[in-house]
Amino acid sequence: MGYPRLILKKGREAALRHGHPWLFSGAVARVEGEPLPGDVVMAADSGGRPLALGFYGAGDIAFRLLSDDPTLRIDAAFWRRRIEGALALREKVVPAETNGCRLINAEGDGMPGLVVDRYGDWLVMAIGTAGMEQWREAIVGIFTELLKPRGIYERSEGRSRQLDGLTDRIGVAAGEAPSATEIRENGLSFEVDPVAGQKTGFFLDQRLNREIVGSISYGASVLNCFSYTGAFSVYAARGGATQVVSVEASAAANEIARRNLTRNGFAPERHPVLTTDCFDYFREGSDPFDLIVLDPPAFAKSRKDVARSARGYREINLQAARRLKEGGILATFSCSNPIDEELFTKIVLNAVRDAKKTARLLRVLGPGPDHPVNLAHPEGRYLKGLLLCLTSG
Q: I need a surface site. Which of 59, 143, 159, 227 has the fewest CB within 10 A?
């Protein structure tokens, strides 16, 4: 099939040759043909030699890689192979006692703009690019055939769709509409609301980090900030924490958090769930803790938000550092895509130093293996985390 072609400027194919899945508009010398946003196009070097196939974009990202084999045909069979490969990977990396995981992680699975999460018998799908939008019906059909879910619920919304000229689409894509359901994760049970919950209903990317926090919670007093539905709190309680305090501004999320504690055998009376802003909680003062978890929502949605969000990350990490006991442990995270790992580390270090403490790095944290990232595409690793031991002086 003769796809339209993007002819690159001389020397601008290097990133693509090294595996980066994006080409920016400034790298394109000319467009041959009349592709629309989301159409499949062939990228070629300045001499016209074919390099790769990908989705065409009319914005800053002019090309999203699908395959570096320019002879392939992008059709339903191509997408079926990609999905089967992604499912085979999850069979290897997701524990048998876990039935909530990410099945498709956009560029990490070679499907730019597509996220699919599994919650037991239901799937939740989000499409963020015009390219994947064109293949929506095929994708829904393939998942229906391969997994036979009770339903596929779609939560395609947000800034990335707007940039591609797409309107939001929220609702049932196939089968039944999900209600609040229960999933199993490493032998624990959690209530998930795929329709009204944040993201697709649960923070699946934190599974390994919850395990780590649970493993170091024995005998510790634990503060879980931005606790949402209390998953870190449940792991800490199972790990033997003497007390876990959960702080979250959403009253609805806190009700689920209490139910999650109860369903796993832990009394909310012993492990209180507080409905308040985390910044306000720190300003009002508290007893020191042995272990603090900071898992805030994304403070930065775009590059213009970086300076403001950096101040927010600095302040919350400063307050946490002040509230840790001597030798206490801080597990701190950022899911802001514009805040890269280097900048996040610098922000946290400055906050710790302002608290007049020294940080020892115990572990660099990130998403679990059901959230694979193209090694040449660090932008895809939106979840960054640090496990630190803080001491005075």
A: 159
Distance of CA 86 to the CA centre of its chain: 17
The whole domain housing 285 covers 203-392
Q: Catalytic annotation on 335?
A: yes
Contact 206, 185 (CB under 8 A): no
Q: Percent of the chain having pLDDT more than 70?
A: 99
pLDDT tens-place string over residues 147-169: 999 999 999 998 888 888 899 99
Helix 251-263 / helix 231-238 crossing angle, nearest 10 deg: 30
Other C-beta atoms lying within 10 Å of the C-beta of residue 55: 27
Tally of domains within the chain: 3
pTM of the model: 0.94
Angle at 365 between CA 230 and CA 118, to 5 degrees: 55
What is the rounded CA–CA span in Å between residue 51 and residue 77?
A: 21
Task: State whether 388 and 239 are in the same domain.
Answer: yes
Task: Tell me the CB-side half-sphere exposure of residue 82, using CA atoms within 13 A.
Answer: 23
CATH code assigned at 35: 2.30.130.10
Residue with tokens 């609702």: 171
Q: Tell me, yes or no, whether 9 and 61 share the same domain.
A: yes
**Per residue in 235-256, pLDDT tens?**
999 999 999 999 999 999 999 9
Per-residue confidence at 300, pLDDT binned at 50, 70, 90?
Answer: low
pLDDT of res. 1: 59
H helical segments located in 183-274: 207-215, 231-238, 251-263
